[in-house]
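Need tokens for this chain, all 91 residues.
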Amino acid sequence: MKKLTKAQLETFVDFACHQHKAESWDRHAATALVKDDDYDEYARRSRISYGHAFIAVNIARDELGMTDEQIDKCYHLLIVWANAHKKLAAA
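Here are the structure tokens for all 91 residues:
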């Protein structure tokens, strides 16, 4: 497997960071709606989530050359890895 250049690695890190922020703000939005019954805060947090998702998808498509199928696979792997890390840290 070919090594990534520093620029490629930094670009992937940017993609992953924005993907993580989108997921995190989505969870915060759900909390605002479910626990606090605050639709305005839900909408605000959802917009922030959508913004990060938009940036992540644009980085993946335009800078990394990923297809939508690859982006979808990467999204699911990031979740699996994050959950696995939490379980190992809690053990």
